[in-house]
Automatic annotation (TrEMBL):
Belongs to the Bcl-2 family. The lineage of its organism: Eukaryota, Metazoa, Chordata, Craniata, Vertebrata. GO terms for biological process: apoptotic process; regulation of extrinsic apoptotic signaling pathway. The keyword Chloroplast does not apply. PANTHER family: APOPTOSIS FACILITATOR BCL-2-LIKE PROTEIN 14 (PTHR14965:SF1), SI:CH73-248E21.1 (PTHR14965). This is Apoptosis facilitator Bcl-2-like 14. The keyword Phosphoprotein applies. Keywords: Apoptosis, Phosphoprotein.
Length: 283
């Protein structure tokens, strides 16, 4: 299982804060509470690791200082770096970049949730319907297979697992969570395969359906829809991810940054990137 441990600046990023706000609106109270508890534990672990590094650095300075006193020829001028807070360590330019995005995180999350809810209620296009039917057929074949024949891992190859997950994500309700609860072999395969490439493949396949449904929409609106459903995939998978480090949220953040951050920056930030959704409400 691949782990993507978030740095403090990533956890403070606008993308991550929007993702957390989105999850708060889509998860049950108990699920979101568990998510917050995991986040608190991760931050404690991160602070402990950082403190240990500072202690080691200070210990190294004491050793270097001892060598300097013992050896008059020791090169002068070395100074221990000031161990200040993370914000103080950043240069002014970086700080201004972080403060430049003053978007309303809750307002953005509300827009994305509303978009997902409206799209979930729409009938599927013919192309999207064919894709979904193919995925459901794979899912049904997998349910009919005998998990006792051969190795359990061999019975559930990665592509079938991915297609099954995408099919369940496209269905309303908590179909994926129900599948996880009932099929322990499937859940074990999900845990074993969980990595960023695995998450990326699931999201790519899911967004193919979104693209099929968005053929008549402007490019900007299609991008907004893909951003929204990327957060939806990350949130829904987080609901079945019991890893204490909230791995799937880290995967979701990485996917958002890799695929949509340049476009959002070109639009002038999150608020401006989602203006097409405001225009749609007016119409």
């Amino acid at each position: 299982m691949e782990e993507i441990l978030l740095e403090d600046d990533e956890r403070d990023s606008i993308e991550y804060r929007i993702l957390m706000a989105y999850a708060q609106r889509r998860l049950s109270v108990s699920r979101y509470g568990k998510l917050l508890k995991n986040e608190a534990n991760v931050q404690k672990s991160s602070s402990l690791i950082r403190r240990r590094a500072e202690i080691q650095l200070q210990g190294g300075w004491v050793e270097l200082q001892g060598r300097k006193e013992a050896n008059p020829k020791y090169h002068p001028g070395y100074r221990l770096p000031v161990l200040c807070g993370r914000a103080e360590q950043e240069n002014p330019q970086t700080l201004s970049l972080h403060q430049g995005e003053t978007a309303d995180v809750n307002h953005i999350a509300d827009k994305l949730v509303k978009l997902v809810a409206s799209r979930s209620q729409e009938p599927l296009s013919d192309q999207s319907f064919r894709i979904t039917c193919q995925n459901r057929t794979l899912c049904e074949k997998q349910d009919d297979s005998d998990p006792t024949v051969g190795s359990e891992g061999e019975e559930h190859d990665e592509e079938k697992i991915i297609q099954t997950i995408v099919s369940l994500l496209r269905q309303s309700g908590d179909q994926l969570e129900e599948k996880i609860k009932k099929d322990r072999v499937f859940y074990q395969c999900f845990k074993d395969m969980l990595s960023y490439p695995f998450f990326k493949r699931i999201t790519d396949v899911f967004l193919e359906d979104v693209s099929a449904d968005s053929t008549r929409e402007p490019g900007g609106h299609t991008q907004c829809t893909k951003v929204a459903f990327t957060m939806e995939v990350a949130t829904r998978l987080t609901a079945v991810d019991n890893h204490p480090m909230n791995l799937v949220l880290g995967f979701g953040l990485k996917y958002l940054r890799e695929h949509f951050k340049p476009w959002i920056q070109d639009q002038g930030g999150w608020e401006k990137a989602l203006t097409s959704l405001d225009q749609e409400e007016v119409e």
